[in-house]
Fold this sequence. Notes:
The protein is an alpha/beta fold. It has 15 helices and 14 strands. 39% of the residues lie in helices and 14% in strands. The longest helix is centred in the middle third of the chain and has 32 residues.
Amino acid sequence: MLTEDNITIGIIGLGYVGLPLATAFEKFFPVVGYDNSKNRIAQLNQSVDSTGEVSFETLQNSAIKFTSDKNDLKAVNFYIVCVPTPITAKNIPDLEMLKSASKLVGEVIRKGDVVVFESTVYPGTTEEVCIPVISNTSGLSCIFDEDFGFYSVAKQYGVDGFHCGYSPERINPGDKCRTIDKIVKVTSGSSDYSSEFIDKVYKKIITAGTFRASSIAVAEASKVIENTQRDLNIALMNELSIIFDRMGLDTEEVLQAAETKWNFLAFRPGLVGGHCIGVDPYYLTYKSQSLGYNPEIILAGRKLNDDMARIAAVKILSGLTAKGQITDKAKVLVCGFSFKENCPDIRNSKVADLHSILLDKGCMVDVYDPVVSRFQVEDQYGINLVSAPISRCYDAVVIAVAHTEFIAKGAGFFRSLLSQDGILVDLKYAFSKDESDLRL
């Protein structure tokens, strides 16, 4: 019988979510960390985390077994799946990595074991997609409440099957204050027993506490609406910035005034990329449309946010024209490439869209970002980052990501990079209105 005293945790997927989770659980349980990238495993075994989420010292002192050999997972009895759930080019959920991970679990899981999914999905995915894959591969059934009935206590503890749960990830990449243990964790299970047991296990590492959802579907839904809500709030700010720009008003000044009311929400306009806010709403809209309802507000927000790179490009080009610059010969420096500040994550970067649009308009574009990996940007986007910008060289310098390092340099540094009549465009309100020439 599985108890809190004989658990071995297996983390499948060692990215921004899985690795911090593994190091947190290691304080209480033996941990096996699995990733199908041999390069990732090699780096971790050398105490190097390319995501920057876990320090060299933490990994150096870790006893986690990092592996890409599925046979090492046979020592595990509590599996946690943390693989990415992206979207396709047509904005449709791509569950291939999740299905592969489920199949992997099915190849090693045993009677009485527990598997928990943390990947963001639409409500119903765990029970409609993941559990069937595990069952078909392993030959075991998942234990649900209706299976208990008048069965024995042994049946309830999963001797005849496996337990499943869902606990959505709540990692905030690049945030060294709100670490995994300080964020309330939602948990759920396929039965009352599994729900209670999974919740107890997570409580070991989450000092902020847990919230035990009534069902897996409720937990899935709670996750997918978190970033949908943020997406819509940012979309509203983006639309307001367009309106205020036509009115000749500074959006930041308007927002600062509005924020003097206690219940005004502090969001800002900007490019919306990354693996969460720009992706998760499409999981919810996909499920909604499959049920015959077209979610117009959510899709409208997505459309606007996906269009912000073009809107920003138009603003930059208009600013150049107003200064008498020839836009199809302008030299532009874009500062920042990651999807958020102080984070090396370049997935779904909308700066790449901005770069492409400016190139199409004839601009010569350099991109500078000391936080991200130059090799990853070149490999994934075909863009060669500059190692250092050139003084008095650029007709426009664009602050696309508000890295702390950029803010520390100050607006004066970026102005020193401008040619005569060059413009400083601040898309992230990194500097004051007086220090920049254009803002969203």
